[in-house]
Amino acid sequence: MVEKRVASRALVPSFHVMNILDRVAQLRTAGHDVVSLCAGEPSGGAPVGVNQAAAELHASGVSLNYTSAFGIAPLRERIAAHYQRWYGTTVNTENIAITTGASGAFMLVFLAAFNAGDRVAMARPGYPAYRNILSALGINVVEIPCDASTRYQPTPELLDEAQAEHGHLDGLILASPANPTGTMVDRAELEALVAWCDAHGARLISDEIYHGITYAPSSEPDARGVSAVEVDPTAVVISSFSKFWGMPGWRLGWAVLPNDLIPGVDALAGNVALCAPAPAQYAAVEAFSEAAYAEGDAAVAEFARTRAFLLEALPRLGWGEVAPADGAFYVYADLGPWLSVWETSTAYCAALLEEAFVALTPGPDFDAEDGDRFVRLSFAAGYDAVFVAVDRILEFQARHAR
Questions:
Q1: How many other CB atoms are found less than 10 A from the CB of residue 218?
Q2: pLDDT greater than 80 at residue 402
C-alpha cells in the first residue's frame, strides 16, 4: 500500500490553551475543583435579551435556513449603528460581513487579501491563530519582537527594521487591546502605523474584538479604543460578539471590509461556510439594545474590579515584569525568580494545574522564542474565581520555595 500524505499546511502548532481546557475537563470529571484562568471566556454569558430571542426563535418552530453569505440585513444594520454609537463614524452595511466568529473572519480576510508567499507582520508576543492560519495558507509570517519599551505593540521603526531584514511587507495585523498583553495603541500611534502601511502598500488588519473592555475613565476620549475605520478606509476591521457581549460559544463575528475586498470575501464566504449560524444571527440583533449595552458595561466594571485585585496581588505572587493591562482581561507576566524553581513557564503551568488545580496558559502559545518565561492569566472568569486562584497559587509557590 502506498503511504498517503498529510498536507504540510496542517502541520501547524496546536493552540495550547485548547489542550489545557481538555485537561481541565478531565480533572473536573475526576471530581477536582479546577479554577480555569487559561481561556478568554467571560463568565457572565450572553445578554438577557439575546438569550430570550434565541429561546423564542427555537420555540417558534420556524425553519432556520441559510442566510446570505454576508449575514442578515437587520444584524448588519445594527452593527453599522454600533460604529456610529461608539466611534461616531459611518460604516455602510454592504461593507459588513457576518462571520463564524472572528476566527472565520480572519480566514476569509487572509484568503482574500494575501497570496501565498506574501509577508504579513504581527507583534510577538501575539495571538497564535494569526500566525498559524497565515502559515497554513502559505503566507510568510514576520514576527515583530515587542517588549515593554514599546508597550508590546509594533511601531513604524520596528516595521522599518522588519522590512529591511525580511523584504517588503504586504500586511500588518494589529490588535488593540492585544491578546495576551492587554496593551493598546492610542490614536496618534494608530495614525502613525496607518501612515506607514499607506506609504509601503501594506494592508492593515485591525483586530478589535476586545474593544469596550478597557479601563480608562469613560470620560476620556477613545476610552473604548480607537477603531481603524476612523483612520483608514482601506483597513480591515475584525470584531466579535465573544468578548464584550460574552458570547464565545455562539460563534459569531464580523468584518468591516474596504470596497476592494467585498467581492472576494463574499465569494469565499459562500463557498467556505455558506453563512454564519442563522440562529445566532437572529438572536444577536438584541445585542445592540440599550439593556444589552448596559449589561456589557456592567460586566466590564466587574472585570475592572477583578483586575484591580489582581494587580494588587502581583507583588505577593513575586512574578517579574508585567505587561500593562490597558484592556481585555489578561495579565501577561514574566515568572521572574520562579524560573529558578521551574525552568520554564510550561513546566510551572503544568505543575500548577496538577497540584493546585489552577489553569494558566504558558507563554509559548504567544511567543515561541521568549514566551517560556511568561504566563497569561485570564481574569474573565470573575472576581471570585481569581480570588481563589491567587490563594492557591501562593500556597503552591510556598510549597516549592527554595
A1: 9
A2: no
Residue 229 located in a structural domain? yes
CB-based contacts of 46, cutoff 8 Å, min separation 6:
54, 245, 246, 247, 250, 283, 287
Rounded CA gap, 246 and 223, in Å? 20
Task: Report cis status (omega within 30 of 0) of the bond before 177.
Answer: yes
What is the distance between the alpha carbons of residues 402 and 397, in angstroms, rounded to a whole number? 10
From 236, 166, 160, select the one nearest 204 (Cα to Cα).
Answer: 236
Of the residues 288, 315, 350, the one at which a domain ends: 288
Q: Does the predicted model carry a pTM greater than 0.85?
A: yes
Instruction: DSSP for 280-297, please give it.
Output: HHHHHGGGGSHHHHHHHH
Q: Which domain holds residue 284?
A: 62-288
In a domain, 305, yes or no: yes
Q: What integer is the mean pLDDT of 57-78?
A: 93
128 contact partners, CB below 8 Å, separation of at least 6: 13, 15, 16, 365, 366
User: What backbone phi and psi angles, to 5 degrees, belong to 96?
Assistant: -105, 125
Using CA atoms, how far residue 116 sits from 113, 134, 268, in Å, is: 10, 9, 16
Instruction: Return d(Cα 401, Cα 342) in angstroms, integer.
Output: 11
Q: What is the mean pLDDT of the chain?
A: 94
Domain final position from 264, 288, 312: 288
Q: Which one-letter amino acid corresponds to residue 289?
A: S
Alpha-carbon gap, residue 20 to 365, rounded angstroms = 11
Total number of domains in the chain:
2
pLDDT digits (tens, 9 = 90+) for 335-379: 999 999 999 999 999 999 999 999 999 999 999 999 999 999 999
Report the chain's C-alpha Rg in angstroms. Answer: 21
Determine the Cα–Cα distance for residues 49 and 47; give it in Å rounded to an integer. Answer: 6
Is 325 found in the same domain as 224? no
CATH label of the domain that carries residue 335: 3.90.1150.10
Q: Do residues 96 and 209 both lie within one domain?
A: yes
Q: Residue 7: pLDDT band by 50, 70, 90 thresholds?
A: confident
d(C-alpha 54, C-alpha 71), whole Å: 17
